[in-house]
Amino acid sequence: MTQQQRFNALVVDKAGDGLKAEVKQLTVADLPPEDVLIRVDYSTLNYKEGLGFANLNRIFRIFPIVPGLDLAGTVVESQSPDYKPGDKVILNGWSVGERYWGGYSQMAKIRSDFLVPMPNGMNSKKAMEIGTAGYTAMLQVMTLEEAGVTPDKGPVLVTGAAGGVGSNAVAILAGLGYEVTALVKEGQESTHDYLSALGANDFSGGDAWSTDPAPLESQKWAGAVDTVGTKVLARTLSEMKYGGCVAACGLAGGFDLNTTVMPFILRGVSLRGVDSVWCPYQRRVEAWDRLVTDIPDSALAEINQVIRLDEVPHYAKEILEGQVTGHIVVDVNA
Ligand code: NDP
Question: pTM of the entire structure?
């Protein structure tokens, strides 16, 4: 790629009180001065970008910005000893697409210490079908394993199961032999067939999940992947079996947590937080290595839909309005 060759990028800039997003033709000289130039194959669209395009929660911190918190592609030029032209790479998190230009572009310049080498057996399309959602779900499953939650210990609950992280968690856990119960929001029961296809064995739901639980409810779950927070997390904790663990990553229902110490001190329950954005390099590599085998391709086909770069603003709105089931891949070259 010469300095003058043009490529497409979705650029967001301020326009009056709002934001304007348009596909523009850029050159490499327009990209930020980071040490690795990448030809991007695919990116993803997530709830966080939905917030960004709607100008909510100050997701975009610099303007103009090329959003896109994930990317997968091939190194074209590198000033880092860690990467050479031709290497396949993955990027997730590190506030790329918020404070740094990200993946909604045919070419991107990214800091080498943000990148992970594509593991053998993975390709760009599969990596972005997994995306931050699947990588976070993998981190949650690893967290449960480290807490001693094995398939023989009993059922595992996944909350917000129809969402991006939840869908991936259901598929990974089911593939590893866990008995998975999926919890979806009231009114989302139409997703049960979709979740059964991903491997869910049973479903939970109903009014109880929006009420305050007793400090200790009857023991049901050996482990739980929580993406919802608030009353859902409080009830999950009170329903954990002795010695069980909850891996919590999200706040899809709210960030409050009104609970008691009872599950912790009388049942030895643990609550472990999971963060994907600042996750250290070695743990990222471990998670991506596991994802080569631990998420079935058939599940990825169920979970994902592919959109073009120019469709991103439309789907960003849909994702905020709860119109999207599963996960969206962005084909930046379509
Ligand atoms: P999605 O919006 O795709 O999924 C969230 C799901 O939870 C939706 O199906 C939503 O339903 C459902 N939900 C919301 N409220 C409730 C409720 N009260 N009871 C049951 N289900 C509910 O989001 P993601 O899967 O991408 O992310 C999930 C959460 O994890 C988010 O809060 C996200 O910010 C966080 N996250 C954290 C990461 C980390 O590193 N810690 C990384 C990735 C995500 P509906 O659509 O109808 O509202």
Answer: 0.96
